[in-house]
Structure formats: C-alpha cells, structure tokens
Amino acid sequence: MTSITLAALAEHIGATLDGDGSAVVVGLNTLENADGQQVSFLANKKYKSQLEDCHALAVIVSPKEQSLVAGRALVMDNPYLGYAKAAQLLDDSPVSEAGIHPSVTIDPTASIGNNAHIGPNVVIEADVRVGDDVSIGAGSYIGVGVEIGHRVTIKPNVTLYHHTVLGDEVMVHSNTVLGSDGFGFANDQGRWEKIPQMGRVIIGEGADIGASVTIDRGALDDTIIGKGAIIDNQVQIGHNCQVGDYTAIAGASGVAGSTKIGKYCIIGGGVGINGHIEICDGVHVTGDSMIVKSITEPGVYSSGIPATGNREWRRGVNRYNQLGDLFARVKALESQLNQDD
User: Fold this and answer.
1) Where are the active-site residues found (predicted)?
2) pTM to 2 decimals?
3) Which CATH number applies to 99-301?
4) Which of 9, 129, 257, 300 is the most exposed place for a label (fewest CB within 10 A)?
5) Do the beta carbons of residue 148 and residue 142 sit within 8 Å?
C-alpha cells in the first residue's frame, strides 16, 4: 500500500489539516477499527459516538464536527469525498502489467492499442478495436465489431456482444453482459416469434458498470448509458433504454425497455421502472419503489412499504382489502344524502 505524510494527504484531498502533518499514513479504516497509522472519516452522524474511542492517526470531518475530534483532523465540507480521494490514492488493488497471455485468441482483423493487458483465455473476435492502456481480464469475450476506448478496465469473465461500444475510462466488472438480446417477441396465436435485436449498447466515457449487470442491446435504436453513469451490481436494463449522464442506479434494480432516465438521477436499490416512460433530470427514487408512469418534476419519489411487525402488517393488509367495500358504502351514503336533499 502507498504511504504518504498526513500533510501531503491533506493537500491531495483538499482538506485543512489541524495538527502535525509529518506523520505517515499507511491506510484507511473505520472510526471503530482505525489504528494510529490509519486515517478515518465521519460522513454519517450516526457514527459520531465512535469518535470518543477512535484511535485513528487523523479523522476527516466537516467543520461542524471538528470540535468532536480529540486528535488530528482533516477538515473539509464533504468528508465522504475526502475519503473517496484518499482511498484512490492509497488503493492497493493489483495493477495488471501490459502484455498478452499466450492463451488469448485474437482475430487477425482486430486492432489492439498500445500497453494493453489481455489476460488468459480471452477471445477477441473480428473487427474489434481496442484503445491504448486497456486491461481485459481473464476469460472475457469480446464480440465482433466491438469498440473499446482508451484506459478501459474490463474485469474477468465479462461478455461484450457484437458491436458494443465502450467509451474512454469505462470500468466493467466481472460476469457482466453488455449487448445481450432485448426481450423482443411477437405473439402468434400463443406462440412467441423472436424479434432479432439489431441495435447496439453504447457506454459513455467514465461510466462504471458493476458485477453481474445485464444491459440489453436495442431492438432498432441503441441502448445508451451516459457519461459518468454508475450502475451497481445485478441491475437489468432493457432494450432501447437511455440513462443520462452521471445517473446512479443501485443494486437489483430493473429498468424495462424504451425508458429514458435523465441526468443526475439517483435510483435506489430494488427499484422497478416500467417501460416506455421518461424520468426527468434530478430525480431521486428511494429503494424498493415501483415507477409506473413518467416523472416530469425533479425531486424525491417513493412507493415502497417499510417492514413492520407481522401482526401490524397483516392488520394493515386486511384493512386495505376492505377499502373496496368501504368505498362502496361511502358512495351509497353520499347518494342517499343527495336524495334526502
């Protein structure tokens, strides 16, 4: 792991250092577990109480919480951003060296850029274009006509179907499938007739695609993921969808086909989004919500029901099931009152 002085770390993350900056930082850890060589951070007020017994070399905090830190503090308005920048600097993830493993299969018509790392058992099909400083992990499959930009990282066992496009500095994590067939079928008297999916998947510059994500190719138009978008593990995005720049979609969410999601949206975990609708820029959908119609105004939207005790939940369900009868009784009473008038 990289080591750095506290003063240099403060400069790197854009924090004001309160205390001696000569000490060397060798890692990051939580408030509860950090030792005297590690830096921690406070970004959630739920963990304020842990500051009292914290043994970290320094803590990244906001100006409001600085007085709670007994030792050294790295003070900045957004401690979580400071943590992110510190983690990038101190990241000890293995770095793959340039080179092509002997077991790789590369079609003669493919073009591979400079300083590429291509791991064992990778298959690269015809007319593929791979940019400079690209890393392709072991067991990945790169289909016909795929275009991969510069400084792209593809983790092991990723599948890119034909004509998929990845912009510069994209990250794709393991077991993700980009460009699989959209769910397109026509019904012929009870039997399903498959509709070939002829669009592409296009991933914008700097997007981060999590593990076991599936993004379907377009039926005719392309499926497009915008610049800087982040998509968590086990997300499904249907054919012809568009996801705007810098939008975040959390794990286990599903987006049905031909839906357009705007820029700077946040879609919580386990959200289901209906097809053929539009969500405008700046929308935040909380976890487990179901979006069934277009959203035209920025803001926070929710529909999930929080868990409660089973007895209380059953009582609520019973009351919900009685709403139809209650509505009919109210309508009958209204009608009677109108007749009496």
Assistant:
1) 239
2) 0.92
3) 2.160.10.10
4) 300
5) yes
